[in-house]
Design brief:
By secondary structure, the protein is mainly alpha-helical. It folds into 2 domains: 88 residues, Orthogonal Bundle (Hypothetical Protein Yqey, Chain: A, domain1); 51 residues, Arc Repressor Mutant, subunit A. It contains 7 helices and no strands. α2 crosses α4. It is globular, with a radius of gyration of 18 Å. This is GatB/YqeY domain-containing protein. InterPro entries: Asn/Gln_tRNA_amidoTrase-B-like, GatB_Yqey_C_2, YqeY/Aim41, YqeY/Aim41_N. Pfam families: YqeY.
Length: 151
């Protein structure tokens, strides 16, 4: 079993004992999403830590989008609940890249690929995605690359 999944299970027990409802609900949801991912496909398998991080990143993004939707609909209480869950999930994710760090990685990838112009965005993304995996959202990375390649 992955170390991250073990940590989630240990934290689940701790949050039950502490009666921390938000943390308990969020960790249960995360473990359910991981279990669904493990049994998806032709045969069940154990997820690696990297795959668990991908699942948690996806769940955190869902919480952020739901929060924005609730806030836009004037439902502040539900929006805050989603933000609270997202904060719990982010404790298990690698630290996000700052704009400066992301910009430096984009510059390195552009130099490595020799890309020029917006049509070469795919080449740069192919080099960049493994370097930023789990540390920056795909849309944010694409926006940085597009800004760098657009004259």
């Amino acid at each position: 079993m992955s170390a991250l999944k073990d940590k989630l299970k240990a934290d689940l027990a701790a949050s039950m004992k502490a009666r921390d409802e938000v943390r308990l609900r969020t960790i249960r949801m995360a473990l359910a999403a991981i279990n669904v991912e493990e049994v998806a496909g032709k045969e069940a398998r154990e997820l690696s830590d990297d795959e668990v991080v991908k699942v948690l990143t996806r769940e955190a993004k869902k919480r952020r989008e739901a929060s924005e939707a609730f806030a836009g609909a004037g439902r502040a209480q539900q929006a805050q609940a989603e933000l609270d869950e997202q904060a719990v999930l982010e404790e298990y994710l690698p630290a996000q890249l700052s704009d400066e760090e992301l910009g430096r990685l984009v510059d390195e990838a552009v130099a490595e690929s020799g890309a020029e112009g917006p049509k070469a965005m795919g080449q740069v993304m192919k080099i960049l995605n493994p370097k930023v995996a789990g540390r920056a959202e795909g849309g944010r990375v694409a926006q940085a690359v597009r800004a760098r390649l657009t004259p």
